[in-house]
Write a structure and sequence with these properties.
The structure is a single chain. By secondary structure, the protein is mainly α. Helix content is about 50%, strand content about 5%. It has helices at about 10-15, 40-50, 80-85, 95-105, 110-115, 130-150, 160-180, 200-215, 220-230, 235-255, 260, 270-280, 300-315, 315-320, 330-335, 340-345, 360-365, 375-400, 435-440, 450-480, 490-495, 505-514; strands at about 30, 90, 185, 190, 415, 445. β3 and β4 form a beta hairpin. α6 (about 130-150) packs antiparallel against α7 and α7 packs across α8. The longest helix has about 35 residues, at about 450-480.
């Protein structure tokens, strides 16, 4: 029996209700009139699939989902649209469905990972406080300075925004306990030295300050190269203007593209979900204990403090006391004089085919924490490492390409034709331009196999990103651009609309000015 023609079944027009199934609960289920399926099985399947579907109501309270809602939904495909256009929508509403809808009083995100991490309500709390600005600016200065210094380390150590988020929590609560409750007036503005308990919005502002400032500015690479390799020093003013200009370019582009990369509900950034989850956990003052932590006999904050302190103390073992644990290349210990073994299994100048380490900085120092990205992103990186470095670099190096038999297999230094470090001062004129005659007399520049591969892949990645995006996402991007002003907003975008934001012309002006 065709479901669309089943006797006693309400029609689409009668119910005004779309039943969602599948990966996205907002997709209407369509079926050809000529298809025969069991009605009871379909009803049971629809009811099961609808239990996990979030309610999404527009301003008129309708249950209809607009096509614009899933324009950027990665689970939605054009083929599905074409398939659904030929059929008729099946809609039914039961007492169980109505009672479920009544229990859901709040609209929420259509994505389960977002629902699990981000709240669907806003609280009226003070956030633009002297406490938030003081703690935030202090951590910004310390974190940015330390990251710039640690970026010169091998392997580099990066202090992420999560560290600032952790440190800001006791600092904020200490401020609440120690500072007096006094009100001041400065330039006509009234502010309180202790505006009450340290809240999640103040904490979030501090986290935002850290996230936009803890990363090392690319201009520092230019400045360091000028000072170390070319002995150039154009002064502090040049360095400040260079840093501000390059950073402003990034802010201008990010602000201009935020309606495409931030506003849509489908634009999910996994690293931010980690920050939000931790923020909510730190400000959840309930005394409910986790039974998985020592049988529920220890409060969450004490357990977190013990783990943090233990991690801090443990790092001194591979980082200072027993540094061989940082690069545990035991294969090279068995044959320390064998060049091939060291090239294949060495962790510093080799491919490290057995990458064993007890040092977290060796794992997260270059590509970030592997605990945050989804598995498919990690697998994609792993495939690239095996294909280009393990296989590609091995073939290139042992085939003698680029004079590799005279160079280290993996190294970031530059060499001349004698194997010594390349002396750039011998090939430069007084105005720091290239002297071709001196270059020919001195030596070409030689680099290791993996270093050459890294340069090639860096240029190839730019071209491949453009081509891949055009082939696979051009229709999606064009639809999102065309409907960016009319796409239905999710709950979080609605909550953010009450806060005044910088206009587009400000970001465009910032980009054009520099």
């Amino acid at each position: 029996m065709s479901v669309a023609n089943a006797p006693g079944r309400p029609s689409v027009e009668a119910t005004g209700f779309d039943v969602g199934i599948g990966p996205s609960s907002r997709h209407s289920f369509s079926h050809s009139r000529s298809t025969s399926i069991d009605v009871d099985d379909l009803k049971e399947h629809l009811l099961e699939g609808d239990d996990d579907a979030p309610d999404s109501q527009d301003e008129q309270g309708s249950e209809h989902a607009s096509e614009d809602e899933f324009l950027m939904d990665p689970m939605h495909s054009d083929d599905e649209d074409d398939h659904n256009e030929g059929g008729s929508s099946i809609e039914m509403e039961t007492g169980s469905r109505r009672s479920t809808r009544k229990r859901r009083k709040n609209e929420d995100s259509p994505y389960p990972e977002v629902r699990a991490a981000v709240r669907n309500y806003d609280e009226h709390l003070p956030c633009n406080t002297i406490r938030a600005w003081t703690i935030g600016l202090l951590l910004v200065v310390l974190g940015a300075s330390m990251n710039t210094l640690f970026s010169l380390r091998q392997p580099s150590i990066s202090i992420g925004p999560l560290v600032a988020q952790i440190i800001a929590w006791p600092m904020g609560h200490a401020w609440t306990r120690l500072m007096p409750n006094r009100t001041f007036r400065t330039f006509g503005l009234r502010w309180n030295l202790n505006p009450g308990p340290f809240n999640i919005k103040e904490h979030s502002i501090i986290g935002v300050m850290a996230s936009v400032s803890f990363s090392v500015a690319y201009s520092t690479d230019i400045i360091l190269a000028q000072r170390i390799f070319y002995k150039q020093n154009f002064g502090l003013l040049f360095q400040l203007l260079l840093t501000i200009s390059t950073q402003s370019l990034g802010y201008g582009i990010a602000g201009t593209m935020r309606r495409f990369l931030v506003y849509p509900a489908s634009m999910i950034w996994p690293a931010n979900l980690v920050v939000v989850t931790m923020m909510n956990a730190m400000h959840d003052m309930s005394e409910v204990r986790d039974p998985s932590v020592l049988g529920g006999n220890m409060p969450r904050y004490r357990w977190f403090a013990l783990v943090t302190a233990g991690s801090f103390i443990y790092y001194f073992i591979p980082g200072f006391l027993a540094q061989f644990l940082s690069v545990f290349a035991f294969a090279t210990w068995l044959a320390p004089q064998n060049a091939v073994v060291n090239q294949l299994f060495g962790g510093t100048t080799g491919l490290s085919l057995l990458p064993i380490t007890f040092d977290w900085t060796q794992i997260a120092g270059y590509v970030g924490s592997p605990l945050i990205p989804p598995w498919h992103a990690i697998a994609n990186t792993l495939i690239g490492v095996v294909a280009f470095y393990v296989v590609g670099c091995t073939v290139l190096h042992f085939s003698g390409a680029w004079y590799s038999e005279f160079l280290p297999m993996s190294d970031s230094s530059t060499y001349d034709n004698t194997g010594a470090s390349y002396n750039t001062s011998r090939v430069l004129n007084a105005d720091f331009t290239l002297n071709e005659e001196a270059y020919k007399k001195y030596s070409p520049l030689f680099i290791s196999t993996t270093f050459a591969m890294s340069y090639g892949l860096s240029f190839a990645a730019i071209a491949s990103l453009i081509v891949y995006t055009f082939l696979h996402n051009r229709k999606q991007i064009w639809r999102q651009y065309r409907n960016s002003s009319t796409e239905k907003e999710d709950i979080h975008m609605k909550l953010m609309k009450k806060y005044k934001e910088a206009p587009d012309w400000w970001y465009m002006g910032l980009f054009g000015l520099v």
